[in-house]
Amino acid sequence: MNTTDTHFPAIDVAGLECGYDGKVLLADIHFQVKRGEIFFIIGGSGCGKSTLLRHLVGLNPPTAGTVNFFGECFNRASGDRQREMLKRIGVLYQGGALWSSLTLLENVMLPLGEYTPLDAAERAELACMKLAQVGLSGYDSYYPSEISGGMRKRAGLARALALDPAIVFFDEPSAGLDPISSRKLDELIVNLRDLLGMTCVVVSHELASIFSIADRVIMLDKQHKGIIAEGDPRVLVKESNDARVREFLGRGEDAKVTARQNQPSP
Fold first, then answer.
1. What is the pLDDT of residues 116-135, one digit of tens each?
2. N or C: more exposed end of the chain, with fewer CB within 10 A?
3. What is the number of H-type helices and E-type strands within the chain?
């Protein structure tokens, strides 16, 4: 994966078809993600957001089309080459997906042991640095059951960052979090993007996150089995010609109005 050639976008998806057991859930998917962009995949429940993510990161092979990372086709590469390309990709799964029997330090060390020649002391030192990057200094020896849901998400993000990826995928990062923890996680994503220069792809239906940190979005629709909108969500909510898009994104505007109306009078 040549991340130094700036001619190519971080991700280029063309003609992608996704599905399971012969059933097509998404068809003819086309989009690009710019380098350093915070790009959201949005839509209602069951529209295929997580399905698309699984196909993008290689957990499920597409039945048609291509996924290119920095100009190199991932899904048509050899197994060995895919393994090399995966070193430059991090994934934060729903709930953090931490191993409950391992400490936070040991969880973050896992990909370092799998993909690097570092010895145990070097892996531990680097894992401590990654935990510090997400605000978890001093929690190295804690187990996932001993920390809050928001902290588990941060620990999962530290593990996703272990190999200094060029692209990080987030699967519903705010799911199960209270509004304050969700906002702090959004702020962390932006800060890490600015600090590390990584590209972020976020699967979410949380409008607060979409409107606060997304540079661009694509919106999927279950009936359409594909993309029905692409662009800046702050523009789409006002200018989209598709009523489904305005209705979905408009929920955020309605929530803001309700919150203002419920504020106590000065």
1. 999 999 999 999 999 999 99
2. C
3. 9, 10
